[in-house]
Amino acid sequence: MIYPKFIKKNDTIGICAPSAGMGDRLESLDESIKTIKKCGYKVKETKSVRNCGARSTSGKNRAKEIDELITDKNVKVVSCATGGDYMLEILPYINFDHIKDNPKWILGMSDPTNLLYTVTTKLDIATMYGHNGAGYTLDLNRSKKQNLDYLKGDIKIQKSYKKYQNFIDTCNDIKILDKDVKWISKKDVDVTGRLIGGCLEVIEKIIGTEYDYTKEFLEKYKDDGIIWYFDVFNMSSYSFYLTMLQFKYAGFFKYCKAILIGRVAFPTIEDPKFDYIKAADLALKNIPHICEMDIGHTKPGMTLINGAICNVKYHDGKGSISFKLR
Q1: How confident is the model at residue 299 (pLDDT cuts 50, 70, 90)?
Q2: How far apart are CA 44 and CA 33, in angstroms?
Q3: Residue 191 buriedness (CB in 10 A; 0-12 / 13-18 / 19+)
Q4: What is the 3-state secondary structure (H, E, C) of the chain?
Q5: pLDDT tens-place string over residues 130-184
Q6: Which of 148, 195, 200, 208 lies 20 to 30 angstroms, CA to CA, from 158?
């Protein structure tokens, strides 16, 4: 596994918009840039970041702007401004050779899974999931600070939070922490393996395409064992159950040591007797799995490193995640 170089003070973080544009949320973008600069880093924006729309620009142009940051020697990190729905369109235009020749930390969450997941499984380059570039508003809370700490190589253990807030906006801002965090598992967990995952709705769309390198990745790292994580945005409990079966039947859980499942941002439970937890229990059976974790769209959330060795601990509703870069 290739781990890109960590950033230092005065290094440049590049922000691009490979999915939606930030034109209707410029206040959050500008606050985030101020936060990044306050932490001692420079910022380079690509041309389409401030455009409006579900697509910041054409698929070809979005890929070109990623490539602009990848090939710029002064840019040390490539950050996706926000999520969206149409990033899958850009994969045919991504220059993976340039990414391979210029390994940098690429980070984002939600729709940027298209890039993160593909880069890690295809190129063996670690990527970071947890915050988008417009997600560092002026309130630099624990989760945002940990994300920036990870970028500079301060890879500390992350412990579960006490309170969380349901999904409010696509910029990951936190207004009120009003709900108790309680991870859910049938048994205690203490497991180590190589981590891979992302937004479940996105990975589901990649599967079976020419950009699906999942099985090659799993075979390469089978001796480490695999830990999957899934950030669920609005998939219904019924669809979640069937998707877990799909992955299972496809052989994706063959070397699986554990599955980590985040809180669902917009839950839809068709049958009150068959919620996401029951769906996971039925589909995954004896595979250790933890639900309602601090992963993804509901905030605060942890920073996860695709491709890294991950240790996960769980006991009595709480837990922790730590990483080793080997």
Answers
A1: confident
A2: 10
A3: middle
A4: CECCCCCCCCCEEEEECCCCCCCCCHHHHHHHHHHHHHCCCEEEECCCCCCCCCCCCCHHHHHHHHHHHHHCCCEEEEEECCCCCCHHHHHHHCCHHHHHHCCCEEEECCCCHHHHHHHHHHHCECEEECCCHHHCCCCCCHHHHHHHHHHCCCCCCEECCCEEECCCCCCCCCCCCCEECCCECCCCEEEEEEEEEEEHHHHHHHCCCCCCCHHHHHHHCCCCCEEEEEECCCCCHHHHHHHHHHHHHCCCCCCEEEEEEECCCCCCCCCCCCCHHHHHHHHHCCCCEEEEECCCCCECCCCEEECCEEEEEEECCEEEEEEECC
A5: 999 998 886 668 888 999 999 999 999 999 999 998 755 544 455 678 899 999 9
A6: 200
Report the b/e string of 204-227 with b at 16+ CB within 10 A: ebbeeeebbbbeebbeebeebebb
110: tokens are: 């939600």
38 contact partners, CB below 8 Å, separation of at least 6: none
Look at the alpha carbons of 237, 239, 240, 245 in this order and tell me if their dihedral is positive or negative: positive
| 200-203 long-range Cβ contacts below 8 angstroms, 24+ apart | 200/230, 200/231, 200/232, 200/233, 200/235, 200/240, 200/243, 201/232, 201/233, 201/234, 201/235, 202/87, 202/88, 202/110, 202/111, 202/113, 202/114, 202/117, 203/113, 203/117, 203/230
141-179 burial code (b ≥16 CB/10 A, e <16): eebbebbbebbbeebeebebbeebeebeebbbbbeeeee
Tokens 């807030």 appear where? 165
Instruction: Please name which of 80, 124, 79, 133 lies closest in space to residue 103, comparing C-alpha atoms.
Output: 124
